[in-house]
Every structure is written in structure tokens, then in C-alpha cells.
Amino acid sequence: MDTRIMMVFYRGIAAVLWLAVIPAVSAMPAIQHWVTDNGARVYFVPAPELPMVDINVTFAAGGVRDDGHAGLAHMTSTLLDMGAAGLGADEIARRVESLGAELSTGSARDMAWVKLRSLSDSVHLQPALKLLADVINQPDFNNKDFERERKRTQVAIQRSEQSPATVAGYTFFQSVYGDHPYAPRPSGTVDSIGALQLEQLKAFYKEYYVARNVVFSIVGDLDRKAAEQLAGQVIGQLPAGNRAPAVVPVPALTKAQEQRIYHPSTQTHVRMGAPGMHRGDPDYFTLYVGNHVLGGGGLVSRLFEEVREKRGLSYSVNSYFSPMEQDGPYLFSLQTRNDQVDEALTVMRETLQEFVDKGPTEKELLASKKNITGGFPLRIASNSSILDYLNVIGFYDLPLNYLETFNDKVMAVTREQIVDAFQRRVSPDTMETIIVGGDG
Amino acid sequence: MRSLLATGLFLASQLVLASGAVHEYQLDNGLKLIVREDHRAPVVVSQVWYKVGASYEHDGITGVSHVLEHMMFKGTDDYPAGEFSRIISENGGSENAFTSKDYTAYFQRLEKSRLAVSFELESDRMRNLHLQEEEFLKEINVVMEERRMRTDDKPTALTYEQFAATAFISSSVRIPTIGWMNDLENMELSDLQHWYERWYAPNNAIVVVVGDVDPEAVLKLAKQYFEPLQPEVIVPPKPRLEPPQKGRRDITVKAPAEVPYTVMGYKAPVLATAEERWEPYALEVLANVLDGGDSARLTRDLVRGSQIATSAGAGYDLYDRQAGLFMLDGTPTESSTVAEIQKALFEQIQRLQDEPVTDEELTRIKSGVVASAVYELDSVFYQAMKIGQLEAIGLDWRLAVEYVDRINAVTAEQVQAVAKKYLVEEALTVAVLDPLPMEAGRKPRPQSNGGGHGH
Q: What is the CATH number of domain A3-235?
């Protein structure tokens, strides 16, 4: 229940990170990869230490495929486990939970996924896999479930409008991406969800939930043969279909714009940025390391120092690249008391401008490299974090040795490369700024 | 399903044996060190837990534990402001700290060879924090920003804060961890100095280390860094037991919001206060019958069945220092009201009092608990959390190991018994969020930011 999350307070916003990313599994995992007969790409890392299996079945079926019907991908994904192979939502949930398994669906702009975590002994795993296969292969798309989930989604959207941070976040995407399919909210709007037809969901499912559009990741206590069987059992019967077409490139912004939106809040939330970079971008490591110095280092970064430590203006302040299939945003965020927003924004802009002009010092660069590379074992220490990496590597066609070469690529970045890349790729003069809050 | 559960149980007990021996030590100055071995990855988590949090506070200085947590990053004479975080970062670590009702904890996650870095810095700030006015004046503003972000601008959080302060009159459970805004505005450096001197000492701390480490080597490091620290005379907080509630309490919170919301809570014991040890576990099972996943009663009956709620939940925490609440909450649909949600929640409670829960529900819950005990081992951090949390409220970490067996021992009759005993109207507090208009969508924000503002 949501009342319980507010009981603990943190020094920094990194709270979310520590909940999500935690250690286990020693040496570099060797990633095994194959393609099923019907064309699905499978990625597998055996992890025999714990008797459990994690599976992520991801489809190129995110909001970017909504084609003017915002929320279509989201609703399609939501309905998968609300009725499948003749089992109702109650029955699916009952069976999954009686096995102690965890089954979930989700979607974002680029992708939609179904995840399963189960104990690995066959008494638990086999029935859990059957349920996973059912929701992927035979979702029922009942009208009753559709109408209920539609209304729930609409209330969830309304409720999210209570949050100035959420309003700032989706307005930022709309402004930065304009006519590009990354612009709309993947959850849709109250109106766009209201206009959806069940037939559209079925058609969307038929087109995108196909084998060639799948990245199937497995981490757990099983061997290669068992993993091949498992993948076959879950997606072997999916029609091959076609891989979704590439997302169209994102046009660059041509001028700076600022939007101020009233919200009855005591704080004003700022989102500033522009299209940044994509997965596999030739400048990926240079920009990533550079931004670590500027605003990506958690409790240690120039923005944290200037905005919070020196001036006490904001609880959280950061910048990060969200690489996607095409250029995801380079996003700067802070939130401050309404009457201080102009001051905070000025400090943030000056800090960015200074960094673009001069880049990091050698000392800062070295400190960031030490943090990123020294912390590498932490990134791959749990089955769940390895699963996330497999999914990213598979979905974005990154090399299989991505993790093995990660530290070397970070260490190879030079100060000059960062200055060059930021000057080519990051233009403070053509950024969108979204300001959502109350009257000063 | 019984056989499934049996397989799972066997698995879980095997694992608890196989995974991580736990070693417990006490240093001469009273510091407790608990080390759990987990050799899956070359990493280590180090956490320092202090037995102090919002429930140790009193009116006028609420939030002081949390503000002090922020100030713990503001420097000692050896490591001035910012150095702590800079050094951890350069060692590839990630770090943070958190404050709750009953504890304040600091942690680092590091590659296993760097544990000494954590111990050196943590032992230094355990006794040598240099609180400075200039740093405090900035940081108190950061904390007020945090309060605005987490509570003041979140209508459900605001509702919860007022709800807790209504449910408890005397018990310090009522105190919001972030502190009341006016107390933050009037906080002084001397409040922090007193609080630090009173609670930050080795004999009021627990160090928990989990990871790919040798326990004897960790003990040696701990002796080197922590043992020279002087202990303090620690005076435990007064019990401040809540007087018996004499009838239902209702409040309304009016705040700008789009969607109404209701939260309600019944006074309930926790593990540390329960007269009957099984009762908190039965309450835990009760919470899971209502809200232990998508097949639990609230989602099944209220969200999918009658469709009166867009979401509904139940919650209970058995690992608190003081008696707390068994809580329920719900958000209506476009066409239902909070009154209807409340009625439906009361009907659910009535049913739990009238009929024993089914074997199938018990089996589902127990299967979930058994499986979770395995899944939790995927996180070194979580393992350390469990140990620290229990020890910080004065309970034995072994209770975490016992948990699966205790839950498995709960019967349907016991669940019914706690429902009858604790979910009674005399002990009930109900809050409703009554939305004020958000000012009809959006109007352009005036450009001026005219002058100071009394927040």
C-alpha cells in the first residue's frame, strides 16, 4: 500500500537505486546466445548458486508503436495476464501465487515485457512456465477486463496529475519530441485511453507479439539444454511474424524554449534537456563518463555540489542520458521552493554551460573513472541485475562482450574527447525547459 | 498444493543452512558486529545502524534524527564536508543513509577489498562529527525541500501524516520521520549537537557486514577502527505507551488533488510488544490474505470483483519498536466514493471475523513466504537490511531466519482470532483525502517571482 513508502527518508535520491541494483555472482558471466527456430533471440547466463530462475520476455512493442493511439501498447501489455487460455485474471493470479512465483507485465516507449521469477525445481518451475506461456501465447482480451483496466488506468493517470514531477516529466517528452513517436505518454491520456477499442489491442498483439520481435533473457539455476527447452516451451509456438521496423530518427531541437505550467504545489519542478544519444551510440562512453562528472555521480557531481551542497536549493539534482533505440533524452532535473526556482535554474544552466565550454578537470575525470570501474562488480552481482543487462544487450543489439569490455572503454575516455563530444552533442542554447509549480 | 509447500520448505531450510553463516561479535566498547558470509560475488555491503529515529524524538524537535543523518555527511576534522562521499565514490562505492521511526542507518556497497575504507570513515564520524553552523543553515533548507517533495506536495502522503498523528495521542509513533515543518524551521545546531552526543556511540550502534568476506578478518578490522571509540551512557527513551483508544476517530484532509483516497488503521501489537508471540505472525498472514498479491481478497473482490476500487491495500509491520497499526487503504473509481470503499473494507473485515480463511489462501501465503526467502538471497543488501532492522529495534537477528517457520505455524483459527481481537471499532482511525480543485487544469504561471515567501 502506498502509505508505507513514505516512512523512510534518505540523504539522497539514490534510494531507488539501492532497492533495484544489488550484488551476487562472481566472475564475468559468459553470455550464451542463440536464435530459436521461429526467430526469437535468446540470451542466457547460468547461475547455479541459488535455486531460482529469472526470465524476461521483451517485445519491441512499446508506446513508440502506438501510432496516434496513446496508451495502446500499455493497455495491450496490461491485459496479457488478465485472462489467458481460458483462465480468468483471478485464476492466473491464484495459480502464480500458489507457486510462490512472481509474474509481471510492463511497458515503456521502446519495449513491452513479461517477467517471471520462480523457484527452479521442476515442481514449481514447470507450472509457472505454463502460465507464462499462456499469457504470452493466448491472451483472451475479454471485454470485461478491458473496460475495467481502462477505467483503472484513467484514474491512475488522473492521480498522477497530482504530482508536479510527473506533469513536468511527460510535458518534457512532449516538448522535446514534438511529432516524433517518443513524444506521447506511454500510459496515454484519459481521453486517448477512453477512445481505444478492444479490436485495436488484439491487432496490436497480433502484429508485435511475434517471435522475431522477441528478446528472451534467462538467468538462473539451469543448464544450456534446459534453457533451450524452456525458451521453446514459452515462445516456441509463437508465429515468426516480423521484427518491428526501426524507430525513426529524432530530429534535433533548433531553439530553446521554456514552458511554465501552474500546479498548486509548494515546490517547482524543473526538467531541462534535449534529445541525447541512442544505445550503441559511437559517443556512448564519452558522454556517459562526461555526464558522470557533471550530474550523474549520485552524491558526488558538479550539479550536486553547486545546487545542493553549496546553496541548499534542492533535495535532488542530477542529469542523465537515457539512451533508447533512437536518441533518448539528456535530462536535467531539480525541484525547489517556488520562489527559488529562477535562482536554481540559473545555477543549473551556468554549471552546464561551464562544463560544455571547458569539460571536466583531469582530476574529476579520474575520480569518475575510478567510481565507475571500481564499482563494476556491484553492477553484475545479482541475478536480477544480470537479467537487466541481458535484456538491454539483446534488445539493442549490443555486442555480447559489452560487459567484458565495459571498464576498458570507460578508462579509454579522455578529457579532450569529452569536451569534443559535449560541444558536438550537447547544446545548452537549444534545450527545452519545463517548469511546473505554484506561485512564488 | 501441500506437497508443493513441503518441497519449498525443504528448499528454504537447506538454503538457510547453505547460504551464509552468520557471525556475531561484541567489541569491548559495546559495539555489536554481525557478519554474514555470501560468497556469490566479490562485493561487500557495510551498514552502521544507530538505535535512534523519529520515535525517540519529542514535540519541538521532530525531524532531528533525520536532519542529523544529513549532517553526518558534513565533515569531521579529519575528513571535511564532502570528503566522505568523495572517498567512497573514488573507491567505486555507492552509499547513502536512511532514517526511520526506530533507527538511523548508513551504508556503503563496495568491491570486497575496500571494506576498510568504509570502517575508517564510519568510525571517524561515529564520534568526531564537527557540526558547523554554516553547513547546517544550508542543509536544513535541503531537508525542508525534501519535506515539500515527499509530503507537502503529495496529497496521499499528507493524508497519511495527519492520519498517524490522529491515531496516536501520546505514543511517539505519531511523529513524522521528516519532522513537522515548523520544527524544521526552528531547529538549531545545538539540537543536533545534543542529539549526536546522546545517541551516536559504539554501544548504541550495530555494524552489519554481508558479502564475500572472512568474518575473522572483518572482526580484526572492526577492532582496529571502532574499538578505540569511547562508549557513552545511553539512557533509553521512555516507553510513552499509548493510552487505550476509546472510540473511532475520523479526520478529513482537504488538499489540492485529482482523486479521493481513504486510509484506516486499527491499533495492533508488534513483535516487540506482543503478549502472545504468534499474534504478530497471524496479523502478518491476515494482511497477506487481504493484500498479498493479485489473487488476494482486496484486489480480487474490490478491484476486479465489485470494481468499487481502482486500488486497495492492507499493511502491517511486525518489526517496529512500538505498537502500531494494521492499515487498509483504497482509491475509488470514477463512479464510486470513499464511503463505498470504506463499507467494502469493513465488510472484508467482518468476513475475516466470521469465517476462517481457507486452506488454499493459507497455502498460497506460505508458498509465497517460502519462495521469497529464496529470492531475498539474490540481494546482499537486503540480507544486511533484515539483520540490521531487527537488531536496531532490540530484537535478535535470528527472528528473520525463524520467520518462515513462524508463518507456517499460523492457523486459520489464529487469523480469525486476531481479526476479532484487534480489528475493532474502538481502536479504529479513519482518514479521508477530500480533493480541493487543482485550479481547473492549468493556467500560465506568472513570470514574476516576487520577493521572499514565508514557507
A: 3.30.830.10
